[in-house]
Design goal:
The chain is of the alpha+beta class. The chain has one domain. About 20% of the residues lie in helices and about 25% in strands. The protein has one helix and two strands. A hairpin with a 5-residue loop joins strand 1 and strand 2. It starts with a helix and ends in a 10-residue tail after the last strand.
Length: about 55
Amino acid sequence: MAQCSELCWQLRGHADKRQVPGAKLALQHNIGLGGAAVVTLYKLGFPHAHAKK
């Protein structure tokens, strides 16, 4: 869940000092026990809805 949160913060521009300028896409991957693999692609949608004020 920490990866998911960080990627959402990055896309919304809320990552403070860790912020990647202009982030619009984010890729999350995880390899677990037994060869399970999860890959998730995040895309910034509705960019004006999360603008900092």
